[in-house]
Amino acid sequence: MEAIEQLERTAVSACCLTTRDEPMSRHTTFRIGGPADLFVVAHTYEALCAILQEAGRLALPVMTIGKGSNLLVGDGGIRGCVVSLAGDFENIHLRNGNEVVAGAGTSLAGLCNFAKKWQLSGLEFAWGIPGSVGGAAFMNAGAYGGEMKDVVRTVVYAGADGVKRSVEGEKLRFAYRHSVFMDEGGVLCSVTFQLRPGNTDQIAALMEDYYSRRKAKQPLNKPSAGSVFKRPEGHFAGTLIEQCGLKGCAIGGAMVSEKHAGFIVNRGGATCEDVLRLIEHIQQVVAQQTGVHLECEVKAVGERRK
In this structure, is residue 208 part of a structural domain? Predict the structure, then answer.
């Protein structure tokens, strides 16, 4: 653990908050996950740069997290360092009239409210998605016909060497629940959104409409990671799962939501192993009964077993 101690010293000297053996269940919307060797909250780019460079020198893996949605952390936890972005990474400002620049640690709720305040439209679909700006851009999050690719113009990120770079346009390689960063890595620092002028009341009404639909159809009152599976071509994952009679199916503390079959919820005491076994069971049953393979959308990280 000498390398972890060295990295922690670097983080502390950069004015970061650090915790050893931090339970990741505290940082995921699933409320599942074993301990991270080192958990760091970075407030500035300079601090993030120092952490990335020192981790590289020590050959320690570094993972960044946003708000912990769409994430399943193994019961054995995460080796190396987990970085959460706060402070400067939560700033939002206007640029060139219709552009909004948001730090990667900004919540999507905060971003949507900022856009509404300045009468800028285009982000209404993101209202109610429990994630961060960085996480949403990383996976090209979307809902109700909208996606991040529709509004993201530029992403500034830090490479493993701690050097800040930017990428824009087609080079972002956005596709369904995919971006260039899923292939090539990088820690997202900020995202520039190109929006359009709108009316505050109309923006607010559309945001409320989308949220009402979520509340009516999704199990928002139970811990989950969001939609578990990507939408298979020509189908809806939740519909296929329900048609296969899997609503309410449970393994351990993990259960297919009785409200929306596309969600797995933590009904109390669920482990990562429970969720993974349930995912595998769902995939097997749906494939056998419909011939459709369901691809997992939730990102599984860390060591599977304690």
Answer: no
Task: Give pLDDT tens digits for 132-151.
Answer: 999 999 999 999 999 999 99
Angle at 90 between CA 89 and CA 94, to 5 degrees: 105
* Reported pTM: 0.93
Give yes or no for a contact between 192 and 153, defined as CB atoms under 8 angstroms apart. Answer: yes
* Residue at which a domain ends, from 70, 87, 104: 87
Claim to verify: residue 153 and residue 186 sit in the same structural domain? yes
Q: What DSSP assignment string belongs to 8-54?
A: HHHHHHTT-EEEEEEEGGGSSTT----EEEEEEEE-SHHHHHHHHHH
Instruction: Give the pair of three-digit tokens for residue 69.
Output: 């949605």
Residue 213 placed within a domain:
no
Name every residue whose Cβ is closer than 8 Å to that of residue 9 and which is 6 or more positions away in sequence: none
For the four alpha carbons of 113, 115, 119 and 122, in that order, the dihedral sign comes to negative
One of 25, 84, 227, 257 is an active-site residue; which one?
227
What is d(CA 289, CA 71) in angstroms, rounded to the nearest whole number? Answer: 28
| Domains in the chain, number | 3
- Give the strand pairing for 254-256 and 250-251: antiparallel
From the candidates 22, 54, 121, 177, give the one annotated as an active-site residue.
177
Judge whether 277 counts as a catalytic residue.
Answer: no
121 tagged catalytic: no
φ, ψ of residue 116 to 5 degrees: the values are -60, -45
**pLDDT tens digits along 219-255:** 999 999 999 999 999 999 999 999 999 999 999 999 9
227 in active site: yes
